[in-house]
Amino acid sequence: MGSLNNNVIVFSLVSLILFPWLNFSLHVSSNSAEEAHALLKWKTSLDLNQNRSLLPSWTLHPVNSTQISPCSWFGIRCNRFRRVHGINLTTADLKGKLDEFSFSSFPHLAYLDFSNNGFFGIVPPQIGNLTKLKYLNLSVNLLSGKIPLEITQLALLKVLCIAQNQLHGSIPRQVGHLKSLLDLDLSRNRLSGVIPPSIGNISNLQILYLPYNELFGYIPYEIGFLKKPQVKFPSAGKKTSL
User: Fold this and answer.
1) What span, in angstroms and rounded, lies between the C-alpha atoms of 199 and 209?
2) What residue ranges in 67-117 does DSSP mark as E strands?
3) If we measure between CA atoms, which residue out of 155, 200, 142, 154 comes closest to residue 173?
4) How far apart are CA 34 and CA 82, in angstroms?
5) What is the rounded distance in angstroms from the CA atom of residue 162 to the CA atom of residue 221?
6) Superkingdom of this entry's organism (predicted)?
7) pLDDT tens for residues 48-58?
8) Residue 45: closest CA among 57, 56, 54
């Protein structure tokens, strides 16, 4: 009886240690599979290049879909929990709309680079769901519409580059909420209106590029609150021509 009781105790201790780990492992695998399927769904929305396969490493191999992970796919970087932490698809010859991308499926995403492609359409408001995002580069595409207000909710963002697109409308006056920002490049668009005074609230801003837009009015004196910025913007009272 003593030996039996000891075995029961040992089994119980092992269960206490092992079962939570198994549950955690299954949960991580499920989340990773969800991210993989979200990426594949977005891939199907892209315009295919007839000369070659589009993102060939983005494919499902295992029979059990809960074991799928995108961590070895081209342009994808994962954290130690095998959740997508970074996506770098710069200069990948991709064409399509960003509003087909499921931003809410990537709660751990900190790095996103879609620059130098052929993305068109609007910058979706859903991009505000990426609350852990620190780096966002959408430069050199064909994006149009306005800068979504939801971008100003990305409190951890350090780099925001949406240069060389076809964005119009004004720079959101709430841009000053991005107090972690170090680099802001909105140059070579069709932005109009005045430069928001709230930019002066981004005290650590080091790079501010606004030329080649249709901005007008005076440069706000709040710009002087910035510590050591590298700044390019239009002359006071004139449209951008730099």
Assistant:
1) 12
2) 76-78, 84-88, 95-97, 111-113
3) 200
4) 12
5) 24
6) Eukaryota
7) 664 456 799 99
8) 54
